[in-house]
Amino acid sequence: MLEVSNLACSRGDHPLFTDLSFTLEAGELLQVQGENGKGKTSLLRTLCGFMQPVAGEIRWRGENVEELDEDYFAELLYLGHHNAIKDELNALENLQISAGLAGIELGEKEAVAALRRMGLKGREHLPVKVLSQGQRRRAALARMLVSDAPLWVLDEPLTALDVGAVGLIQELLGEHLARDGMVIFTTHQPLVVEGVELRRLVLS
């Protein structure tokens, strides 16, 4: 379980939110909502350790994440608004490198299978810089297929995706949640996972 208690975050001298508390349990899907500038991305980045909260506590499996350190981050997959892939490398190389950084030993066969499921068959060995924006996003999101992390933190995962790709992401989320995974995410697009109740956390 992920537990957030009395969390407060700011950007510079500007407070974003205070006294924020919520929990996220196995099999749950939580969407963070709010107007622009209310701290949605900042909350996700704080959960991932990229930002330090002004106050409050984040606990994972009952322990403070600051004490768990790398043991917590090893159980977390973060996909940000930006793709975080290198244009000069191909989709296969990008996926294998990102998996390696997460401590996952990913063979070429498994990586190719993941990219093909993401709709990139025939483009696995092309430099990312020649792919469309939607294809680049698919290449980045392929990390979802090779990660065994139970906690997924996704910032605008549907950006630049067509209807077919959105359906695939919803399918992958459903599979992850069925394995007792958990997901916290932001999106400006409709996202529905069949058989899963969507919880909402509104920052105001």
Automatic annotation (TrEMBL):
Name used for this protein in its record: Cytochrome c biogenesis ATP-binding export protein CcmA
Transmembrane spans: none
ABC transporter domain ranges (all copies): 2-204
One Pfam family here: ABC_tran
Domain of life: Bacteria
Biological process terms in GO annotation: cytochrome complex assembly
Keyword Translocase: yes
Molecular function terms, GO-annotated: ATP binding; ATP hydrolysis activity; transmembrane transporter activity
The entry's keywords: ATP-binding, Cell membrane, Cytochrome c-type biogenesis, Membrane, Nucleotide-binding, Translocase, Transport
Ribosomal protein among keywords: no
